[in-house]
Each structure stands twice: as structure tokens, then as C-alpha cells.
Amino acid sequence: MEHHLISEKTVERLILYRRILLTIDPEKQKNIVSHQLALLTGVKSPQVRRDLMVIGYSGSPARGYDISSLIESIGHFIDAPVKQGIALAGVGNIGRAIIDYFKGRRPKLDISAIFDIDPEKINRVLHGCRCYHIDQMEAIIRAGKIHMGIITVPADSAQSVAEHMIRAGVTGILNYAPVKLVHPENIHVENRDITLVIEKVAYFSRQVR
Amino acid sequence: MEHHLISEKTVERLILYRRILLTIDPEKQKNIVSHQLALLTGVKSPQVRRDLMVIGYSGSPARGYDISSLIESIGHFIDAPVKQGIALAGVGNIGRAIIDYFKGRRPKLDISAIFDIDPEKINRVLHGCRCYHIDQMEAIIRAGKIHMGIITVPADSAQSVAEHMIRAGVTGILNYAPVKLVHPENIHVENRDITLVIEKVAYFSRQVR
DNA sequence: GTAAGTTTGTGAAACATTTCACAATAGTTG
DNA sequence: CAACTATTGTGAAATGTTTCACAAACTTAC
Ligand SMILES: NC(=O)c1ccc[n+]([C@@H]2O[C@H](COP(=O)([O-])OP(=O)(O)OC[C@H]3O[C@@H](n4cnc5c(N)ncnc54)[C@H](O)[C@@H]3O)[C@@H](O)[C@H]2O)c1
Ligand SMILES: NC(=O)c1ccc[n+]([C@@H]2O[C@H](COP(=O)([O-])OP(=O)(O)OC[C@H]3O[C@@H](n4cnc5c(N)ncnc54)[C@H](O)[C@@H]3O)[C@@H](O)[C@H]2O)c1
């Protein structure tokens, strides 16, 4: 299978398509046409067709796409072949919200190791996940063959936590701290800076009027 | 003033530039060259220059940009002329994390009205903000001339909450619920879907190896 | 005061992504 | 089974974004 030249945007949309397709009752509807999937996801229909072309999925003219096999094809493309563990550092407000919310939501992904420095949290089990001291992180990530990390520590610890994660073999990081992480360019880093996005939406809310 | 043709990406970067510039001690450094700002923010230097060109800010050859006047120029461009109120609906895990975290962080932006349906929360003051029943939202948004909303309610209430917000005059929405909101196209909607971004980073973490 | 050394500002090129538009194709109907 | 309809798959165009590359401009040093 040949997936390297696929854009981030396409990956995001594929994930979105699957999410929407999963909400459709398979008893009620077996097929979907590009125009309807477009409507449900807020993209244009040629875009939907192009994205599905990218993963080599073919529909049928005049009948559209078979929902269940499309879900499966997207899964083949997007999902890990086996369950993939995720490490999370910083069990504070957002850290806890994410752990709580994400638990059990994607069958192939699991926040399987969480870390903090607060003695109150260490060794306690939160949402079914035991919290370890950050000093144990490298060893546990290595042992668990974990390749993705979520950073929800305060800004001034984020770079150091990222370096430990990368040293232990993490290749994808989701960073909630409002700092630009310095990292090797082969590491995928996604920043979710809440202050930044609030400012952005505030800006556009004023342009619109 | 002429700002309509400015791209979302440029706006995001401008906000980022300002954030970084604000961390520089004005006693120690008065000027900055595009190359350094690029390094600190992780973009390329021609991109920095182009972005500043877009807002009509000029530097000086051989000396770069004056940090304090650049901060001010970005502020002129990005910030509301007066303090702008923000409404937040759904005072649960992420809702509370955002309220708590954002309080006082941007001088021109204030989460000034929060809403829920849980009787335990209504009329209580959380992080200095009184929580009202969602039924009062339209009236309060209208009265407060609020133009931006944050949605952190469960997925099945998100569309209805969005419609109330829009009806009351909101033109920009930051949506954390994992649903595609249906909305008039002049409304700016930004989706922050945590499950989606976790899946995305997990995907790329596997491509990288 | 001029030469050397930087850095900006920006047209133009390169690259990326989206959208158009239509031939090919499958299904449906009489 | 032929005509009609609807939808796919996809080259090509359009649009959007980033990067290059270099003249013009300012600073510094001698
Ligand atoms: N809450 C939000 O909505 C929000 C929004 C934007 C950004 N952020 C960012 O996310 C991060 C966390 O925010 P929060 O509100 O959850 O903060 P928080 O203070 O509630 O949680 C931080 C947690 O990290 C732990 N910690 C501190 N240093 C650590 C280290 N070196 N290693 C491991 N754990 C460590 C603390 O003990 C605490 O449990 C911060 O960087 C913050 O800027 C939060
Ligand atoms: N916690 C996360 O990390 C996370 C991640 C991704 C998405 N989300 C999404 O964010 C939303 C909130 O998540 P959460 O974890 O904070 O959930 P939560 O259950 O902790 O909070 C939801 C809050 O909304 C209130 N609410 C319910 N219906 C309402 C209505 N009609 N009007 C106003 N308030 C109402 C509830 O009383 C509760 O206080 C959900 O849509 C969830 O899917 C959360």
C-alpha cells in the first residue's frame, strides 16, 4: 500500500468522512453519493470524490459509495494495524478533560500512559489510567512502544517534556502548551493553542459584520 | 482601514508573532530581523516579511523591525478597538478549563457570559463569572453586544446552541463539539475537534518512522 | 564620504489545493 | 435492449500560498 504523498488536509477530511458515515444507521441507508457526504461534512462534492480517489476507493456511478465498505477502506488507511498507545504528560485541567473524554472513543487508540510531577497525582488511578512520575516517562514509552504523545504541561516545561518524548521514540506530538516546540523535522507536531484560536475567531467575528 | 482580503493563515501567524514578541525583554532587545522572528515562530523569513507587508508594517533595512511598534501595529490590526465580550455555553470539563485558563490573558478579550442547563451550576460564580441558564443566553448576548461564542456543550446540543447564538448576533463561533455546525456562510466557525486531531497525529506519527 | 555588509520589500516562480467540467459508466424504465 | 438519468473519476483550469531572488535602502566602519 502506498501512502506517503497524502496531504494533512486530506487526512483530516477522511477522518471527518468516517466520523459522519458512522453516524448513519446502516439499516436505513446503505449507499451515499458524494454530494450528500459533502453536505454533511461541509466540503464540496468534487473534493469528496478527489479525497476518496487518493485512497483508491471506487464508488459506483449512479449509486454512489457503499457506506460500510467505505468506512472500512478509510479505516484501513487511517487506523493503526494494531491498537496504538498514547502518552499524555500533565494531568491538569485540559489533560484530565482529554483523558476522560477520549477513553474508549476510538477502538485503535488508547491513552495508555499518563505522567505528572505532582505527588498528589502520582500513583493514583485517574479515569482508569495510573499516573506515573514524569521521570519514568522515557522508560515507560520505550517499553510500551508508544509513538504519540500529548503535552498538557505548563508552557515552561513543554520543551523539556517534548525532548524526553522524542528521545524515547515518539514521532507525533499534540501540543496544548502555548510554545513553539523545537524538534527534528521528521517529527510531526500539531499545536492546539487555545488563546491563539480565541483571538483568531474574535478577529474574524469582527470582519464578518 | 482595509482588512478584508487577509487569509486565515496570515492572521494566525500575526497572532503568533505578537505572542513571541511579547516574550522578548524590551530592555535587552529593541529590534528584530525577519530571520530571527522566523526562527522563533517556526516559519520562513520571506513569509514573515510578506505577512508584515500585508498589514502595511515597514521595517528598516539593515536594522529590521522595531519590536514595540510592531507589537502595536499587530494589535491595531488584530485587536478589537474596545474590549470584546465572549459567551461560552457548556460549563463542563473543557468549558471550565478554558474559562479558568483564559481569564485575564488577553486584555481586549473577556469571557463575560457563561451558560449551562445544570441547576447545580446556574447562578453560581465560576472563576469570577456568573453562570446563567441557557434560556437566558439570547437576551444576555444581545444586551452585551457579544459577537463571539464558544461551544463546549455535548454534541447533541451544539447545533441548537449555535443557532441561538447566531440569532442573538454572534458572528464567530469556536466549536469544541464533534459535529459539523450548519450555519450561514457569513458566520465564521472554527472547529476544534479533539478526537479528530488525536487521530490525525496518530496517523502521521506512523508515517514518520 | 564611500565602500562593504545587512536586511527589507516585492515581483515572479514554484508549489499546493480546490474547483470545474465532462466523458465514461452504471442503473432504471418502458 | 435502447434511451434516459444520475453519478463517478479525473484531466485541466483556477485559485491560493509559499518561497525565491534580487534591487533598493539603511547602517557601519574606515
Ligand atoms: N486549560 C486550558 O484551556 C488551556 C488552554 C490553552 C492552553 N493551555 C495550556 O495547557 C497546559 C496545561 O493547562 P492546564 O490548564 O491543564 O494547567 P494545569 O495547571 O491545570 O495542569 C498542568 C499539570 O501539569 C503538571 N506538571 C507541571 N510540570 C510538569 C512536568 N514538568 N512534567 C509533568 N507534569 C507537569 C502539573 O502538576 C499539573 O497537573 C499549559 O501549557 C497551558 O498553557 C491550557
Ligand atoms: N473534554 C474533552 O477533552 C473534549 C474533547 C473533545 C470534544 N469535547 C466535546 O466538548 C463538549 C463538552 O465536553 P466536556 O468533556 O466538557 O463535557 P461535560 O459533560 O463535562 O460538559 C458539558 C456541559 O454542558 C452542559 N450542557 C448540556 N446541555 C446543555 C445545553 N443544551 N445548554 C447549555 N449547557 C448544556 C452540561 O450541563 C455540562 O456542564 C462535548 O461536545 C464533547 O464532545 C470534549
Question: How would you describe this structure to a colleague?
Answer:
The structure is a homodimer of 209-residue chains. By secondary structure, chain A is an alpha/beta fold. Chain A folds into two domains: 3-78, Arc Repressor Mutant, subunit A; 84-197, NAD(P)-binding Rossmann-like Domain (Rossmann fold, 3-Layer(aba) Sandwich), CATH 3.40.50. Helices cover 43% and strands 18% of the residues of chain A. Chain A contains eight helices and nine strands. Chain A has helices at residues 8-22, 34-41, 45-54, 67-78, 93-102, 137-143, 155-167, 194-208; strands spanning 31-32, 65-66, 84-89, 109-116, 125-126, 129-133, 148-151, 172-175, 188-191. In chain A, the strands form two sheets. A seven-stranded mixed sheet of chain A has the order 5-6-4-3-7-8-9, with helices on both faces. The first copy, chain A, has a two-stranded antiparallel sheet with strand order 1-2. In chain A, strand 3, helix 5 and strand 4 form a beta-alpha-beta unit. Chain A is globular and about 60 Å long. Chain A starts with 7 loop residues before the first helix and ends with a helix. The interface between A and B is large, with 58 and 58 residues. Bound molecules: nicotinamide-adenine-dinucleotide (2 copies). One nicotinamide-adenine-dinucleotide (NAD) sits between chains A (89-95, 115-118, 134, 152-155, 157, 161, 176-178, 194-195) and B (97-98, 101). One nicotinamide-adenine-dinucleotide sits between chains A (89-95, 115-118, 134, 152-155, 157, 161, 176-178, 194-195) and B (97-98, 101). The structure holds a DNA duplex (30 and 30 nucleotides).
